[in-house]
Amino acid sequence: MTAPTNKSARELTGRRWLSTLGIVIIVVYCLAPFYWMVVSALRQPNDQADNSFFPSPFSMENFAGVFRSDVGFGRSLVNSVVVAGITTIFTLILGTFAAYTLARLNFRFKNLAAGIIIATSMFPGISLIVPLKKLFTEIGWIDSYQAMIVPSLSFALPLAVWTLATFFRQMPKELEEAAMVDGLTRGQAFRKVILPLAAPGMFTTAIITFIAAWNEFIIALSMVNEKEMKTANVLVSQFTGISGYDSPFGTKMAAGVIVTVPLVVVVLIFQRRIIAGLTAGGVK
After folding, report:
1. What are the counts of helices (DSSP H) followed by strands (DSSP E) for the chain?
2. Average pLDDT score over the chain
């Protein structure tokens, strides 16, 4: 009995080492580009051709260059926060009501409505840019926040509705029935009973929507021409060097770090809530 036991223990240890090695490889593969971006941002502008793994000496000159008054990066960060924040708020409000309606209520063409909502997410964003730009030009929305927020809603809402509808379907209907037996209307039961229980799923949806809206590029690039209205992603892509034609890699890397770090911090802080929101709807 001893030999098989030792063999099983060795096999288990081998599987654990293989699993650990696989995780390490995946982590290194995912973090390598971000690490190189940080290293490039910390190099001196004249040392960008250096391929060493550690910058020597360390320099914050690239970060200082990002926030020069003539660059306008601070204003672009504000624009990104406004666009991503408003998109997230409207997506959460509209998506919650739409998802609850599809999950709980019965009405004609319910399946058709759900199919149309999901189908809209299958259109490539680039195919909608030309008609949207023509429409926004005619109504005077070019170079405005709404020109970036409204198209972003059309891509964020299907994901929110799909995620939250699945979450609501997994919640027992007896919760609302018990609340209505106690004298609450369906609207009051939704507000006082369902919404608090749905908070993990809503929080997860909000985080995913904010990240998607923060990283959005093609819409912001197409709908905005004025520098003061551009988001951070667009402005970084249009950085120019001193001559106006060369590419300032160090400054772009520094700006990329500044744009990426807030998202990384948010995910690390709220990772448990995000995982809870993704899995909570799967258990009754």
Report:
1. 14, 0
2. 83
